[in-house]
């Protein structure tokens, strides 16, 4: 990196260059007094110039340890951190198993499927399950739900919260102490109070909310999941410039990745499907094309297998490809049973 | 570290190791002027003869072919990725001093190749691996699985120690925009130049997964700043690779081209930047991935 990249005025830059300071290495070990003498400028100005130098070139860092890169972690430390990480359960044990325990924090998971398969139900279920108290094996976090299609139904969320609480109390009915401790927390209304809901009506609003989330999350420290219901809805129609759409989408996905990593939360994106004509036949693929397919860490596809709902891990760095059946009941997402079949409308 | 002392009577100067070529002209002319003033009796030729060695110090030394070959044999080793098929295709493995690119559509195995190469290289004591992650796909759990497979002949404590050693040699840093990447690369360059290099703490492999997700938000549009950033990143990576004997591995994704055929992202300007380009394809429903060479410095396309 050269002097030309430093944020100093052109006259200062010209003085530096004519005195022979062309690289950062030459500036890194000189004292302000010496610099002022060489450049014929005031001492204050010289120390100001030295202050804008990037931190890694200051002399202290040269001798301080052999850290190759500031901010890098070894894989060993990350492994220990990851093993202590809790996952967000989906409510269905089979689905949790193929997901490696549930939805992972610090990762962006994309869930796609045909309309009516249960994507919004899964989204609401995750928004409820993230709030399960630590004593019951959950994360006790809050949820941010960004709704672009208007498919979030409060009554259904209430129903799912009730179902979740009933199941939790049922599972831990022998642990009396635990139940007493979380009495006020285990009410459906308090679960609803911990879901932050944003309704989006255009793509600019969507980009604005995602950019604003950084500040929001800095204030609300307990948020552990962000669910965007139909991240692609506003980008599919009325977008004239496809190149611009790609740029905006990739910028948005980088922002979401950064939020997931910095605030240690899970990001779940729900996506629609579209048909693609490849190799002479029509196939269903996730909307927004090939460029968006790299915006997520994990991808789960929900599909119908006969009359049953199944989930399939399509892309993941650490999970193997597998599929699992699940069902949507009045209590939410649960294990597949024989009763929950697709209803055929006659 | 350099300081250009104004010559009083003789042209003496202590010179920095990496001079900036665009300003050597100004310094050379200044120096020649001072020479002229100080030594008016000297003729022009003698004055130039005194300036010339200084000018040669300010740019990279000229190397002839034999020296380049020696350097390539001595310093630029091949880092095996651990996948036999890929190593054979690459003629030994990832070459230090070269920028290798892996292109593939979604879930074709690019991240797996990166993780496995990292584990394998760290295992064989080549040096430290630096993984720059842009899509949160660095999975320590997966690397632990791979190391488990690699050390199936060990057991118990030895396995645990081996795992710790390998994992401690892999560093991971998350980057989410192109400017942060450029900063990190400058920092790496600076640290490598000033580090007291002992064999085991030197970086030998730098992986960026994936560089295309950093560049797509800035490419395109009316201005060409995006392409500028892309080419600068390419230049810095290749410079890092060549000067410090690091092998650089980047991943790229594919986009739809004409007629619906997929082609690598990042466009025409990027095509000439990597030394070696590999394409991965994954057959649906099977565990086999195919690798083919798109571009190589000394091998034919296959």
Automatic annotation (TrEMBL), chain A:
BP term (GO), one: meiotic DNA recombinase assembly
- Localization terms from the record: Nucleus
The superkingdom of the source organism is Eukaryota
Extract the Gene3D superfamilies matched here.
P-loop containing nucleotide triphosphate hydrolases (3.40.50.300)
Question: Among its keywords, does the record have Oxidoreductase?
Answer: no
Residues in RecA family profile domain copies: 84-273
Is the 4Fe-4S keyword given for this protein?
no
Matching entries from PROSITE patterns are given as: RECA_2 (PS50162)
As one GO molecular function, the record gives: four-way junction DNA binding
Which GO terms of the cellular component aspect does the record hold? Rad51B-Rad51C-Rad51D-XRCC2 complex; Rad51C-XRCC3 complex; replication fork
Q: Which UniProt keywords apply?
A: ATP-binding, DNA damage, DNA recombination, DNA repair, DNA-binding, Nucleotide-binding, Nucleus
PANTHER family registered for this protein in UniProt: DNA REPAIR PROTEIN RAD51 HOMOLOG 3, DNA REPAIR PROTEIN RAD51 HOMOLOG 3 RAD51C
Record family assignment:
Belongs to the RecA family. RAD51 subfamily.
The protein's job, in short, is: Involved in the homologous recombination repair (HRR) pathway of double-stranded DNA breaks arising during DNA replication or induced by DNA-damaging agents.
Q: What is this protein called?
A: DNA repair protein RAD51 homolog 3
The species is: Phoenix dactylifera (Date palm)
State the taxonomy lineage: Eukaryota, Viridiplantae, Streptophyta, Embryophyta, Tracheophyta
User: What would be the name of the gene that encodes this protein?
Assistant: LOC103698418
Automatic annotation (TrEMBL), chain B:
What is an example of a GO molecular function annotated in this UniProt entry? four-way junction DNA binding
Q: What is one GO cellular-component annotation here? A: Rad51B-Rad51C-Rad51D-XRCC2 complex
**What keywords would UniProt list here?**
ATP-binding, DNA damage, DNA recombination, DNA repair, DNA-binding, Nucleotide-binding, Nucleus
Q: What is its main location?
A: nucleus
DNA damage among keywords: yes
Q: Where in the cell is it found?
A: Nucleus
Sequence ranges assigned to domain RecA family profile in this UniProt record: 75-254
Which residue ranges does the record annotate as region Disordered?
Answer: 1-24
| GO BP | DNA strand invasion; double-strand break repair via homologous recombination; reciprocal meiotic recombination; telomere maintenance
The Polar residues compositionally biased stretches are 11-24
Please state which protein family the record places this protein in: Belongs to the RecA family. RAD51 subfamily.
The job of this chain, per UniProt, is described as: Involved in the homologous recombination repair (HRR) pathway of double-stranded DNA breaks arising during DNA replication or induced by DNA-damaging agents.
Q: What is this protein called?
A: DNA repair protein RAD51 homolog 4 isoform X2
Native source species:
Phoenix dactylifera (Date palm)
């Amino acid at each position: 990196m050269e002097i030309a990249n430093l944020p100093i005025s052109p006259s200062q830059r010209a003085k530096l260059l004519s005195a022979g300071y062309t690289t950062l290495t030459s500036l890194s070990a000189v004292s302000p007094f010496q610099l002022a003498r060489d450049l014929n400028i005031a001492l204050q100005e010289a120390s100001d110039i030295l202050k804008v130098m990037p931190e890694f070139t200051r002399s202290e860092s040269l001798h301080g340890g052999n850290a190759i890169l500031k901010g890098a972690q070894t894989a060993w430390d990350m492994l220990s951190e990851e093993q202590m990480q809790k996952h967000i359960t989906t409510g269905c044990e089979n689905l949790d198993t193929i997901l490696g325990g549930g939805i992972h924090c610090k990762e962006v998971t994309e869930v796609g499927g045909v309309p009516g398969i249960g994507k919004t139900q899964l989204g609401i279920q995750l928004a409820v399950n993230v709030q399960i108290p630590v004593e019951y094996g959950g994360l006790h976090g809050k949820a941010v739900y960004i709704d672009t299609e208007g498919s979030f139904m409060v009554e259904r969320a209430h129903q799912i919260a009730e179902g979740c609480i009933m199941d939790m109390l049922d599972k831990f009915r022998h642990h009396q102490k635990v139940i007493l401790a979380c009495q006020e927390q285990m009410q459906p209304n308090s679960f609803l109070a911990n879901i932050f809901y944003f309704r989006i009506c255009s793509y600019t609003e969507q980009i604005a909310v995602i950019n604003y989330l950084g500040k929001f999350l800095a204030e609300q420290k307990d948020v552990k999941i962000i669910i965007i219901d139909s991240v692609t809805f506003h980008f599919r129609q009325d977008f004239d410039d496809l190149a611009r759409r790609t740029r905006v989408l990739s910028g948005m996905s980088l922002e979401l990745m950064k939020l997931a990593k910095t605030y240690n939360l899970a990001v779940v994106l729900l996506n629609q499907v579209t048909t693609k004509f490849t190799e002479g036949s029509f196939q269903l693929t996730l909307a927004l094309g090939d460029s968006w397919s790299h915006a997520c860490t994990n991808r789960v596809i929900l599909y119908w297998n006969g009359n049953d709902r199944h989930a399939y891990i399509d892309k993941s760095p650490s999970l193997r490809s597998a599929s699992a059946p699940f069902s949507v009941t009045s209590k939410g997402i649960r294990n597949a049973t024989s009763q929950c079949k697709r209803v055929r409308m006659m | 570290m350099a300081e250009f002392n104004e010559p009083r009577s003789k042209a003496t100067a202590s010179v920095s190791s990496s001079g900036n070529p665009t300003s050597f002209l100004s310094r050379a002319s200044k120096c020649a002027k001072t020479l002229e003033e100080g030594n008016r009796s000297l003729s022009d030729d003698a004055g130039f003869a005194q300036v010339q060695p200084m000018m040669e110090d300010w740019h990279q030394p000229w190397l002839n072919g034999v020296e380049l070959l020696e350097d390539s044999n001595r310093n630029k080793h091949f880092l095996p990725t651990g996948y036999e098929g890929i190593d054979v295709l690459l003629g030994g493995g990832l070459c230090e001093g070269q920028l290798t690119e892996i292109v593939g559509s979604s879930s074709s195995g690019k991240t797996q190749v990166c993780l496995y190469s990292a584990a394998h290289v760290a295992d064989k004591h080549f040096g430290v691996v630096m993984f720059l992650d842009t899509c949160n796909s660095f999975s320590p759990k997966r690397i632990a699985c791979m190391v488990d497979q690699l050390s199936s002949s060990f057991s118990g404590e030895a396995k645990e120690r081996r795992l710790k050693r390998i994992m401690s040699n892999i560093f991971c840093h998350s980057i989410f925009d192109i400017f942060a990447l450029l900063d990190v690369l400058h920092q790496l360059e600076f640290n490598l130049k000033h580090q007291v290099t002992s064999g085991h703490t030197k970086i030998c492999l730098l992986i960026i997964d994936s560089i295309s997700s950093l560049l797509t938000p800035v490419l395109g549009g009316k201005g060409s700043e995006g392409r500028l950033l892309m080419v600068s990143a390419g230049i810095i990576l290749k410079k890092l690779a060549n000067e410090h004997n690091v092998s650089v591995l980047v991943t790229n994704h594919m986009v739809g081209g004409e007629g619906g055929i997929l082609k690598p992202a990042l466009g025409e300007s990027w095509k000439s930047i990597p030394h070696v380009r590999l394409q991965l394809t994954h057959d649906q429903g099977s565990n086999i991935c195919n690798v083919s060479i798109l571009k190589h410095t000394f091998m034919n396309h296959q």
